[in-house]
Model the fold of this input.
Amino acid sequence: MSQSSMQDRQDRVAHELRKGKVARLFALAEKYGVIKRGWSCIDYMRDSVKNYGWESTCISGPKGTAKSNLMLQHGKAIYGDMQKTKKFTVTKRKELLDHMEYAIDNELRIAWIGVDDIAALFPKSLYFTHRKLYSKLQATWETVRTVMNNFEFSCTLKNKVASFILQDITGDIKCYNRKGEIKSHYDYQRWLWLRSIKDPTQDIAKLIRVEDIPFPLIPEAFSLDASLRTAKYYCGGKEYVGEDFFRNKAKLTGISREDFKDYWNNRLGLAKESFKDFKDIFEEQALKQSKLNVQSAEASTTPQDPKSLGRKGVAARRRYKEEAQMLRQQLEELRSADAGTEK
Done:
């Protein structure tokens, strides 16, 4: 996407904010405290840490759109340290539970925790495969999540994730249009929950756009892409400019190749475990099929009990009797036909 086309997109976002309907919804979100004018995504996360709040941010989008990179940048903006960020970026269920258990036992709050590819930990299919486990997780999630200020997770599609995770979302990010290793783009919207007019016992979510911007993938991106240095960007209804916006407002400065490679090597451990599970499923299915084949072969060669044989004999005799009766009828018809010919 060229600098001019990106600027056009930013101008359209600004124009959208000026529209009557969108402006009223934006004002309502401000009234409810869902939107703070001029705030970026990281501002909401930092405020949650400062005031013991709760932010649940979903990063979705096609594979390869730098979802993991963006999540690491958010963690780095919170902790200010890449090693601590990688420590609290998890890919396994046990890692998440261990962090939460330590926080509960020591009466601590976790400032930020990121779960990469959450559908591998809490898939929507869990409801069908482990119904009791799903019900227990759903019942306890409301209370155990309070040990975290920021819960951020990535997925390709939200409909692959367990519903009790999605129901707590406060912010929704969609990544798109990656440009090599220099930059990608994301659209960040806040969820405003309103009462349903048709059914006041139900709430409905309205999306309020906060940011629709590119973001650098590596620290060198600013020297490689002019738009990151000089273009105008709109964030929470306010206008900002170039590199200063990314460094001081959005807190997005990229992840070094070494840090991301180190993280990704750990991430590959999940892929190895998943492949092992995948392979075990097929081997287990093949073993079951082999047992069925053996049982079927044994059943075909094993003598059957007298009762079963007796039932089969009765059925056979009945069939033979019916066939014999049909043959006699046909023979009588032929004899009648021959008698008529002789006359």
The chain has a mean pLDDT of 85. The chain has two domains: 3-255, 308-337. Residues 308-337 form one domain.
